[in-house]
Design goal:
Layout: E1 2-5, E2 9-16, H1 19-33, E3 39-41, E4 44-47, E5 50-54, E6 69-73, H2 77-89, E7 93-100, E8 109-114, E9 120-125, E10 136-139
Parallel strand pairs: 2-5, 6-9
Antiparallel strand pairs: 1-10, 2-6, 3-4, 4-5, 7-8, 8-9
Length: about 140
């Protein structure tokens, strides 16, 4: 049996009511899991692919989760554009047309849609870069 990881999910965002309580909880659980904090600011913090913010930060649109944010990796800007068009055609609602998002980081190109349940779904291309591997391959001994 073989699995590949690192190709689909770019990051997951949780928007929380009490950032201090969430920060304490995630710091504790990730410490025992050996995952270091990636960074933080007044309105957010992150560990690897998990991004946690307050509803007041610019990343959250003023809403708590219940409305999840899922970001999927795209190989290039054309793939982000195609994601947006296909999602609209399949019943998604616009939540941010394809374009550069320099406030995230240079080269960040993304599009945002609301799925039928109101989840914020994103496709993102991070600009010119080189990956060390297309995915992490996990081989199970059976």
């Amino acid at each position: 049996m073989q699995l590949h990881r690192g190709r689909l999910i770019d990051h997951v965002q949780l928007v929380v009511a009490d950032l201090a309580a969430s920060r304490a909880f995630y710091a504790a659980v990730f410490e025992v899991l050996g995952i270091p904090e990636g960074g933080s600011a007044d309105s957010h913090f992150w560990y690897d692919e998990l991004f946690v913010s307050t509803k007041d930060g610019p990343e959250a649109a003023g809403k708590l989760t219940g409305r999840h944010h899922l970001a999927f990796q795209a190989k290039d800007q054309a793939m982000v554009d195609a994601f947006y068009r296909a999602g609209l055609a399949a019943g998604g609602k616009d939540n941010g047309a394809p374009g550069d998002r320099p406030n995230y980081h240079p080269g960040y190109y993304a599009a945002f849609l609301l799925d039928p349940d109101g989840n914020n779904v994103e496709a993102v291309h991070h600009g010119p870069h080189q990956r060390s591997a297309p995915s992490v391959q996990i081989d199970f001994e059976m």
